[in-house]
Amino acid sequence: MEKFFSLKENGTDIRTEVMAGVTTFLTMVYILIVNPALLSSIGIPFEQVFMATVISAVIGTLLMGLVAKYPIAIAPGMGLNAYFASVVGAQGLSYQTVFGTVFIAGLLFLLISVTSLRKMIIDAIPNSLKYGITSGIGLFIAFIGLKNAGIVVPNESTMVTLGDLHQPGTVLALAGLFITLILMARNIKGAIFIGMIVTAVIGYFIGLLDFNGVLSVPPTPVFFDIDIAGVFTHSLYSVVFAFLLVTIFDTTGTLIGVTEQAGLTKDGKIPRAKKAFLGDAIATTVGSMFGTSPSTAYVESSTGVAAGGRTGLTATVVAILFAASIFFSPLISAISSVAAITAPVLIIVGCFMMEGLAKVNWKTFDEAFPAFAIILTMPLTSSISTGIAIGFITYPLMKLFSGKGKSVHPLIYIFGVIFLVQLIFFPTH
Ligand SMILES: Nc1nc2[nH]cnc2c(=O)[nH]1
């Protein structure tokens, strides 16, 4: 094991790596609760999503640990699951058809990962768009958290307003949010997970949470409940594109951030980037076949790195813990059914995703405005793909008008025209 993971070379040992793996697992295990909660709200059977979430997290994270050998975990991303749900709800599409879009995005991602297109796309996309998109998703999921908790409600004249803070569910969500924030401010490992459990215990005693047991035989996974032809009959190309772009940007940004933090980059580059991308692409494709939205490298991996994790052993430990979770479906199912328990997580993870805004050059207006336009429109239109489109349209336009048109990669102009045509003539979600 020492040799396989080059533990000594990376200045680490088995004990540190195991502790780092446990830390990362504790910070991201909420996804096993929140992902089925979000996706079952649009009709996908809870147990199908639960098993699909475990399967994609285990496959993606194992590939990251054993093949790419990074202390980085992969699982279905927050934001993309919410976007998935909004596409199904808004257009009356079946979830099987939207799984078809994830499947095609996964295959394209596989193709891009093994060719030079990967580098070209990553190099061509400016920081304002890359980080604007991740941050916009952060606001988008935080808004969903606020709505689910009843903290923000519809209003005729202002569209949204503050909800009734006396409702039991809203009070529980606020209590859960503050408990988790206190744990995070105290740097407690697994603060999000512990916060959810404490909120669930309070919820149980005040009668908002019902559960029948903790352990059971794992549910049977559902395989290939998917409609690929529907993607073409409904022309869902912009949805495929949104899934594809977001997974590529998100994984790139997270890989750069976490490998830099771990001191694993070489001359500013990520060694074995191709293998890491392949891990994510495979997890996304397999996930769509079992029933979940696209997977991505998790920012929460930074907690394991902070605990000393430097090698693929950390990720392997995370994968083993995810695999062991399949026996806890009754407990997870009960917790997922109470929005007040999952809403604080959506709000807090939303904050994590805003981190990239620091990398946008706010002093240069033609860089700042496209990023601003993305983070403004994503939550307000409840659409990640609309936010991406607005970013890709405004960026080259701003550069052209400010006389810097030549500094923009031709690919961005092509994307800009495609998004403009799509937004005007084929508005999907
Ligand atoms: N980078 C990243 N980390 C996450 N953690 C939870 N969801 C996400 C996501 O969508 N992207």
TrEMBL record:
The chain crosses the membrane at residues 20-38, 50-73, 93-117, 129-146, 166-185, 192-215, 235-256, 277-299, 311-331, 338-357, 369-395, 407-426. It comes from Peribacillus simplex. Pfam families: Xan_ur_permease. Keywords: Cell membrane, Membrane, Transmembrane, Transmembrane helix, Transport. It is found in: Cell membrane. Belongs to the nucleobase:cation symporter-2 (NCS2) (TC 2.A.40) family. Azg-like subfamily. One of its GO terms (cellular component) is plasma membrane. It is a multi-pass membrane protein. This is Guanine permease. GO terms for molecular function: purine nucleobase transmembrane transporter activity.
